[in-house]
Amino acid sequence: MFSLSGKTAVVTGGGSGIGRAISLLFARQGAAVHIIELNTAAAQDTADEISQAGGAVQVHAADVSQQAQVQATFGAIGRADILINNAGIAHVGNVENTAEADFDRVYQVNVKGAYNCLHAAVPLMKRQGGGVILNVASIAAHVGITDRFAYSMSKGAIFAMTLSVARDYLGAGIRCNSISPARVHTPFVDGFIAKNYAGQEAEIFEKLSKSQPIGRMGQPDEIAALALYLCSDEAGFVTGCDFPIDGGFIKLNN
Ligand SMILES: NC(=O)c1ccc[n+]([C@@H]2O[C@H](COP(=O)([O-])OP(=O)(O)OC[C@H]3O[C@@H](n4cnc5c(N)ncnc54)[C@H](O)[C@@H]3O)[C@@H](O)[C@H]2O)c1
């Protein structure tokens, strides 16, 4: 079960955290993995680990927010059985203290970046007779989280784009779903704690861990396992859905 043998998987942001875990697992399951990354050194590190384990991988330097770069990259790859729209950035702030430049940046990467990859990948999938898309949303798309104004906006858009694409390409054999993780322990979390809560790192880490009723953050490998199921042939009946993977955050925080 869950073999990806013979499939080409494109993963954005595969140099770190969740994207890295997905790239490693999908390669182990037999996919030829293409990592689209801004941080090519980090992507190369993921690629080296895949190659050493005997997997197939290529790194593509591109900024997902730039449509011309994304189009050229998918043109070079030439095929996409699986697309993982994972690259994303964080932002902490409410509507009053979110600066226009920060709002635009979150929109450009998290929303337009996903659109750019969908725009480039869907025609390839149509031509091939089908494909699978997995968009990485967040619990912030579904519940109100303190000080996540721009970020929540971007993840709500991911959720809505998932439904739109799933609906429009039912007849083309393309499945499209999203996943909504709560806090997962990645450099993304460490980075925004360091940037926004300097001097209180341990305290905030503990607080963020406890905000999942299960009592801890998720691990990237746990997210990758759900991604594998959703992108496998075994999930052939699953489309147009969002899957929280959240240690009980959405339903049990009462
Ligand atoms: N970690 C969490 O707690 C958490 C929770 C819910 C959702 N998410 C989402 O999961 C996704 C991955 O998060 P992570 O924690 O693994 O993050 P991360 O920061 O560890 O990794 C993200 C990767 O994306 C790359 N990237 C950023 N901007 C890019 C761009 N413009 N073009 C190409 N690559 C770019 C970065 O270089 C980095 O390697 C994000 O969409 C994030 O919003 C994370």
Automatic annotation (TrEMBL):
InterPro entries linked: KR_dom, NAD(P)-bd_dom_sf, Sc_DH/Rdtase_CS, SDR_DHRS6-like, SDR_fam
Keyword Cell membrane among record annotations: no
Occurrences of domain Ketoreductase (ranges): 7-185
CDD domains the record matches: SDR_c (cd05233)
Gene3D superfamilies, per database record: NAD(P)-binding Rossmann-like Domain
Keywords, in A-Z order: Oxidoreductase
Domain of life (superkingdom): Bacteria
Pfam hit, one: adh_short_C2
GO MF entry, a single one: oxidoreductase activity
Keyword Oxidoreductase: yes
Family label: Belongs to the short-chain dehydrogenases/reductases (SDR) family.
Cited NCBIfam families: PRK07231.1 (NF005559)
Protein name: Short-chain dehydrogenase
